[in-house]
Amino acid sequence: MTLETFDPRSSAHIDAATRIWNAACGADLAFGERFMRYNTDPGYWNGQGRHQAGRLAMIDGQPAGFVLASVMKAPYANAPYSGHIDALAVAPPYQRRGIGRALVAWAETWLRGQGCAGVTVGASARTFVPGPPLELGSAAFFERLGYSRNGICCDMARDLAGYQTPPTALKASGVTVRPAQPEDKAALLGFLKREFPGGWYWECVQLLEAGSRISDYVILLSERGVDAALLVTFEDSYRPMDRFYPHRLPRPWGQLGSVGVSADRRGSGYGAALMDGALRYLQARGVRGCVIDWLVLVDFYGKFGFEVFRQYEMAGKELQRGIE
Ligand SMILES: CC(C)(COP(=O)(O)OP(=O)(O)OC[C@H]1O[C@@H](n2cnc3c(N)ncnc32)[C@H](O)[C@@H]1OP(=O)(O)O)[C@@H](O)C(=O)NCCC(=O)NCCS
User: Domains of the chain, with CATH numbers?
Assistant: First the structure.
């Protein structure tokens, strides 16, 4: 076996990694090449605070497995940095031959060289999965390699046909919920920078710079301006829908991101009002199968008729300092 540098500009590499993932993870967790290109886009991972690298495992000249690893540094994150194994897969005929172990070892060495103090499986800035999907059983593989299991998170889903506003969404008063418009850009970014200066702020900056529709953000306006926001995805959004693995749900598909409410306005019913407004927006656009991804507050989303759709086991490891 040899390890070859993964080149995100190579169609052959994009194709090979996509095929390996789809063969290893099955139809329910399959994605298309556009998603693989999006998640490995060199325009995003430009080495200026956003770093990603990968390897293809080659056997007899054939790609048999791949790994991608990444780390966000300043200005997006502060030291000590925390790295990610973004995605790892070995094609079924080549499994249980030590290839997965070799790919993880390469990723850990690369991350250590980037100054990372720890590594998380999945959950990277351009996310493939929040952690190993429970249905793949691969958390046991990571455990074998010294990773600890750090709990479960899940995606929830429902068919929006027949969605009706639940009582919980009627508590807030004096607020308006609507898709953001171009003139809301400064207010939206100001809100995110104030309340969620980490990932969500930078995600919004990057999405808007890349030409994503601002109306994919749904905002809640109180008397003082934007006080809550969430991000939705349609099948034609800039962020590929593949990320949410909605295959078992009726089309058209939609996604709704986690609700973010100003810290001093939590408990006022803003989150539920925003959820309801966003769900009605998706419903009015014809969305049926709707996913809310990567969450732990199952009870909150359950009030809107959502049920657990997929579970992920979070896994991570501290990286010992090696010779760099
Ligand atoms: C997880 C995966 C990458 C493992 O690759 P692999 O090449 O088969 O793994 P290795 O042969 O290197 O296995 C290393 C060790 O883990 C064990 N192992 C491998 N898969 C395992 C599993 N599913 N459960 C328990 N142990 C496992 C091996 O037996 C081996 O044990 P050893 O210490 O006795 O030698 C592969 O099964 C896969 O592609 N799964 C689907 C994708 C996935 O789940 N990715 C993770 C989320 S990003």
Answer: 2-152+313-318 (3.40.630.30), 164-304 (3.40.630.30)
